[in-house]
Recover the amino acids of this structure.
């Protein structure tokens, strides 16, 4: 589904990403790991269109998408979350989910002003979908609360629900477990697995929490200082010498 | 602690004297062709030192004073009562609003002409503020050049009448649409700009429009403006004493009543009222539609909005265009009300006032903005004797509001949406 | 030869006015660089400097003092003291309490302050413009008397030299002194500077004071150059100066200088070859163009949005 070939990203004198390649197949969860500052989020930003990569190719479902703007890539079916939760804080929880469905709604001004049947049915459908996902992540009771007033763990779940409501094909999660306690991390674990199983969504994941990564990943790519280090199944990576050295330093 | 405060308090008091004494205490007066210096009245000098004294004492005991202020009981008589449930609240609001509108419809017939005239001005500012509220309050785009669209609306009517004899009703939609077009034109260059840069560019845009209006004398009349702008007609009936245009009849003759200058003032007021209500209702509707939600998403977090497929271009342009459209309404009404327009009415200060109304009212909140528009337009009229101080107080009030209550008088509330449990 | 002289005249005029824009622009650029906000009231600080200088000069004249260097020095000192105090007070009252809040709030506060100060002076001194004595007059003239003559007045030379001196002193101050270093640290990373024990509040105040002092110098110079002051002339000068700061790269002091000169010259060329009426249009259009194509300005550093 997603194929990244030899991606590189240069900022002036700094080469943040150098020759990274990875791929995500249908129906799989791929994790990207690496020490802090390795360039993982930069890779994400390139893939999701927030940065224009200085080299390499990105193919989504066979078509080249590198350099395309962020909102267009999102419309193709790739949505992402962010390292620091980015919700629409002053809007209510349910409004966050309604905004996300913008593409599926009737945005024609006249239709909305006149409340045509098409407009109304689409609004209703989006409300139903919002309700469904809120219940799925356990936030239905908080539907009308301002998103900025939620607890951190709830905000994280809302962010994921907001992504799912767009009916994505590929979900990119940037450190979803950051700041969560073990119980919440477990719930997150289950949630991501079910997203893959029940909703046929592939997941590309940046994470530091090794237990989560090892548990749910089908494959793992390791990046260090912008360069690819290793790639393979969790077991492969766990036993790779280079990986161990990168994380623990030279013995 | 006390000594530190003492030094600081002394310093503040000295600064107060320094900034006040030369400018306030010494007047530059023209003595023939020369300039001389005159000491100010004793009252002024005493006031300066009094102010310094107050500053000194305040800074000295600041911690105590601030502490005690915090302990004051909150002066909110409604606190402690349960907030009303959503449906009941909506019903109460609907009744109150209907009541106000009915009142507004019948009120002008029983008050003086001057009051109705003032009310029309208030309605014009309400339209302007609601329109700017879309751009600034909902979409979060700092537009400091909004007055340009107001000017487009007014000058469109004036020019269409001058060159083509267009009436008010013909000019109204054209003025609004043309203003909207200008809104879109402004939207393009600022697409990629953030915050303060966007503010300055919009300010520049507003100034460019004003300078063009001021200097393109051949078309716009330059600083002398354009006059003779007609009042709106009612099905071909004019409200003047004598009919100006051929083919029109006059209102008072048709209905067999005595001519009164009040007729046209009231008529214009009613038109302004209708337009203002339309503005408020349409924007209210837009806020609940995808386009309105997109505006707020853009304001809250542009990056998150983009990551969800929202096109920054489309959202920004729609905000500018729609905001400008309603400024066009206001401009047309303004031109008709004054009968004469000139670039003097469209200076940056106007943009600043409208912006202040939006911020004081509570960004995004329509009711707050309307209240603020009423307050800002009416209060200076009530305190006529102090009109010299009007702008001074206005500037100080802006600063004060930002420091004390930046969320505005009536911060925006979210509309609760009922969700059904999905089986 | 005629044409060359005419062109040179516009150039000289442009560089003169540009230098003064640069002096005022520094205040904007330093404040923006350090706390990321546009000090809308800065133009008014410049205006107050001009008024104070005029008051001082008039006062000295009444006292019968006529020695030019003394007059200028005293006027300068008075203007700097009053402007700096005003700048300091404005920061404490209108900006510090709202620092860090949503962008619009400091902006509105700044606009409110600007309106307040304009009207403060208006009420205190009247709204008509008041003549400012041209204390330094005379100059050089080049070219034959029958045709166009290039004039380079002593006033213009004074302005150049003063600006140069101020810029040099400021650059030395920023790069060598302790406070200067602290300024640079705070403008790079406020949080970090705090953690390192720098009293950021004092540094921010110092920034305002420095900017205000330079604006006061500009006020004295321009008052003499133009020959009059009125309460509203700070606003448009402030806008131009801000344009200059953005042109050169906001946050960059050499940028403010460069931006000021470019703006001054383009205005004067427009004035000289097209029409004086449209020079403001040129300034704003220049601003819009720069922001469209190179928002970080000529000497600014490209900013990468951190996501």
């Amino acid at each position: 589904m997603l194929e990244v070939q030899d991606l590189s990203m240069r900022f002036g004198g700094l080469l943040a990403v150098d020759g990274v390649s990875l791929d995500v197949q249908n129906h799989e969860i791929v994790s990207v790991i690496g020490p802090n500052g390795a360039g993982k989020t930069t890779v994400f930003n390139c893939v999701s269109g927030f940065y224009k990569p200085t080299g390499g190719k990105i193919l989504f479902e066979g078509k080249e998408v590198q350099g395309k703007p962020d909102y267009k890539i999102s419309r193709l079916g790739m949505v992402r979350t962010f390292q620091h939760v980015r919700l629409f804080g002053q809007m209510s929880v349910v409004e966050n989910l309604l905004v996300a469905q913008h593409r599926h709604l009737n945005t024609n001004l006249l239709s909305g002003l006149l409340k045509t049947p098409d407009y109304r049915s689409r609004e209703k459908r989006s409300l139903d979908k919002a309700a469904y996902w809120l219940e799925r992540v356990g936030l239905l009771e908080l539907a009308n609360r301002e998103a900025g007033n939620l607890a951190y763990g709830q905000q994280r779940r809302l962010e994921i629900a907001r992504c799912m409501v767009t009916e994505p094909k590929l979900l990119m999660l940037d450190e979803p477990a950051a700041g969560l306690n073990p119980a919440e991390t477990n719930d997150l674990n289950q949630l991501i697995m079910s997203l893959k199983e029940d909703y046929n969504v592939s997941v590309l994941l940046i994470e530091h929490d090794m237990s989560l990564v090892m548990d749910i990943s089908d494959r793992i790519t390791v990046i260090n200082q912008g360069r690819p280090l290793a790639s393979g199944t969790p077991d492969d990576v766990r036993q790779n010498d280079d990986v161990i050295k990168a994380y623990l330093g030279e013995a | 602690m006390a000594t530190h405060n003492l030094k600081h308090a002394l310093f503040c008091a000295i600064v107060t004297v320094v900034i006040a004494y030369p400018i306030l205490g010494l007047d530059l007066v023209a003595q023939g062709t020369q300039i001389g210096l005159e000491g100010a009245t004793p009252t002024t000098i005493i006031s300066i030192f009094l102010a310094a004294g107050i500053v000194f004492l305040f800074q000295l005991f600041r911690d105590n004073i601030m502490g005690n202020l915090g302990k004051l009981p909150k002066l909110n008589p409604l606190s402690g009562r349960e907030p009303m449930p959503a449906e009941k609240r909506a019903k109460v609001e609907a009744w109150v609003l209907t009541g106000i509108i009915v009142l507004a419809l019948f009120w002008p017939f029983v008050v003086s002409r001057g009051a109705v005239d003032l009310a029309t001005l208030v309605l014009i500012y309400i339209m302007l503020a609601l329109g700017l509220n879309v751009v600034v309050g909902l979409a979060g785009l700092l537009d400091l050049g909004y007055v340009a669209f107001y000017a487009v609306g007014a000058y469109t009517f004036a020019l269409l009448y001058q060159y083509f004899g267009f009436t008010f009703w013909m000019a109204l939609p054209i003025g609004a649409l043309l203003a909207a077009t200008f809104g879109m034109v402004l939207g393009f260059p600022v697409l990629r700009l953030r915050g303060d840069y966007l503010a300055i560019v919009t300010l520049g845009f507003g100034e460019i429009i004003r300078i063009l209006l001021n200097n393109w004398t051949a078309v716009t009349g330059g600083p002398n403006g354009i006059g003779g702008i007609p009042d709106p007609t009612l099905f071909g009936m004019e409200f003047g004493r004598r009919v100006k245009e051929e083919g029109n009849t006059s209102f008072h003759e048709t209905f067999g009543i005595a001519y009164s200058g009040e007729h046209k003032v009231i008529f214009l007021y009613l038109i302004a009222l209708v337009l203002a209500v339309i503005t408020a209702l349409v924007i209210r509707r837009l806020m609940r539609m995808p386009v309105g939600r997109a505006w707020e998403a853009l304001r809250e977090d542009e990056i998150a909005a983009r990551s969800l497929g929202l096109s920054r271009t489309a959202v920004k342009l729609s905000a500018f265009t729609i905001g400008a459209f309603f400024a066009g309404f206001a401009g047309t009404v303004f031109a008709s009300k004054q009968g004469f327009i000139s670039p003097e009415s469209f200076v940056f200060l106007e943009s600043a006032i409208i912006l202040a109304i939006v911020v004081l009212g509570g960004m995004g909140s329509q009711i707050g903005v309307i209240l603020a528009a009423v307050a800002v337009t009416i209060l200076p009229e009530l305190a006529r004797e102090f009109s010299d101080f009007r702008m001074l107080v206005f500037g100080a009030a802006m600063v004060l509001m930002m420091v004390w209550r930046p969320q505005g008088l009536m911060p925006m509330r979210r509309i609760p949406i009922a969700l059904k449990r999905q089986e | 030869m005629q044409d060359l002289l005419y062109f040179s005249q516009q150039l000289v005029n442009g560089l003169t006015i540009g230098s003064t824009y640069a002096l005022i622009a520094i205040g904007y650029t330093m404040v923006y660089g350090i706390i990321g906000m546009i000090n809308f009231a800065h133009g008014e600080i410049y205006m107050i400097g001009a008024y104070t200088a005029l008051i001082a000069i008039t006062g000295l004249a009444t006292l019968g003092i006529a020695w030019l260097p003394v007059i200028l020095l005293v006027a300068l000192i008075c203007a700097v003291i009053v402007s700096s105090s005003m700048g300091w007070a404005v920061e404490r009252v209108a900006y510090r309490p709202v620092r860090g809040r949503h962008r619009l709030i400091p902006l509105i506060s700044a606009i409110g302050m600007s309106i307040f100060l304009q009207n403060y002076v208006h009420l205190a001194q009247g709204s008509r413009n008041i003549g400012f004595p041209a204390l330094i007059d005379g100059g050089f003239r080049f070219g034959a008397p029958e045709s166009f003559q290039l004039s380079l007045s002593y006033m213009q030379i004074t302005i150049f030299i003063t600006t140069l001196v101020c810029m040099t002193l400021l650059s030395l101050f920023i790069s060598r002194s302790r406070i200067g270093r602290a300024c640079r640290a705070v403008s790079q990373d406020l949080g970090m500077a705090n953690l390192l024990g720098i009293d950021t509040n004092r540094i921010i105040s110092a920034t305002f004071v420095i900017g205000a002092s330079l604006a006061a110098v500009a006020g004295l110079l321009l008052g003499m150059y133009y020959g009059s002051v009125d309460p509203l002339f700070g606003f448009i000068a402030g806008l131009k100066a801000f344009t200059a700061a953005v042109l050169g790269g906001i946050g960059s002091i050499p940028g403010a200088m460069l931006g000021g000169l470019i703006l001054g010259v383009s205005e004067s060329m427009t004035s000289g070859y097209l029409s004086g009426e449209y020079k403001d249009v040129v300034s704003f259009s220049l601003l819009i163009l720069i922001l469209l194509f190179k928002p970080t300005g000529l000497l600014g550093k490209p900013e990468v949005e951190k996501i």
Q: What stands out?
A: The first strand of chain B starts at residue 26 and ends at 31. Chain B touches chain C through 57 residues (CB under 8 Å). The radius of gyration of chain B is 25 Å.
